[in-house]
Amino acid sequence: MDVTPPATGQGQAPAPGPVALPEPQRLGGLARLAPAPMKVVLNWGRRYSLWVFNFGLACCAIEFIAASMARHDFMRLGVIPFAPGPRQADLMVVSGTVTDKMAPAVKRLHEQMPEPKYVISFGACSNCGGPYWDSYSVTKGVDQIIPVDVYVPGCPPRPEALLQGIIKLQEKIARESLGERYGHRAERPSTAALTSGLVTPPPAPGTAAEAGGEGR
Question: Which residues form the NADH:ubiquinone oxidoreductase-like 20kDa subunit domain (predicted)?
């Protein structure tokens, strides 16, 4: 059987050759394994399995608790409240007044959360200091010490406002690219880079500082 293509006559265009398909976009550190559709699956899983680490500091924490109760029930949105600790949490909800004395603890717990991690600032005090913005001891917003993804205004906000903030965060996660978020890092951060500048660890036993104190 002859499979030779027929010769093209005068005025006939040659048969088109094979068209190369574009290279699919890749995903972050899994560039060799995960094509672009995998990003949709990973983001879908992350947006509907948010373990919350609640940092309740004042009256906004009561509204957070109300949002987790049966009437509002934010677990139907895929949000799991009250993670055992920061190392098991994906989302930190800072609800209440952040004082300068409490700021190092907020930052330290945020640093203990694994990546990717998100923060919702819940209430006017957490957003900008609220009615205490001119106080000598109140931090002018939790975004002064940690990055914030979603701000929920109000003093205090209703539980419905927190539900809307969670939905906005889920929309952000759905269109997020982990490659763009983490791909620019040439190397893993060092231990010194992860150490908070707000908290100075106590001196180790037998150091020069302790020896000097004993001498006095």
Answer: 59-169
Pairing of strands 118-122, 91-95: parallel
* Known binding residues: 59-60, 125, 155
Q: Which residues are annotated as a binding site for [4Fe-4S] cluster?
A: 59-60, 125, 155
Query: What pTM was computed for the model?
Result: 0.67
**CATH architecture, domain 50-177:** 3-Layer(aba) Sandwich (3.40)
- Domain parsing of the chain, residue ranges: 50-177
Q: Please identify which residue in the block is written with the tokens 């997020």.
A: 176
pLDDT tens digit string along 132-170? 888 888 888 898 888 899 999 888 888 888 898 888 888
Cα–Cα dist 172/150, whole Å = 9
Element containing residue 128 per DSSP (H, E)? helix 124-128
DSSP single-letter state for residue 19: P
Q: How many beta carbons lie within 10 A of that of residue 57, not counting itself?
A: 21
**Regarding beta strands 50-56 and 79-80, do their DSSP bridges make them parallel or antiparallel, or are they unpaired?**
parallel
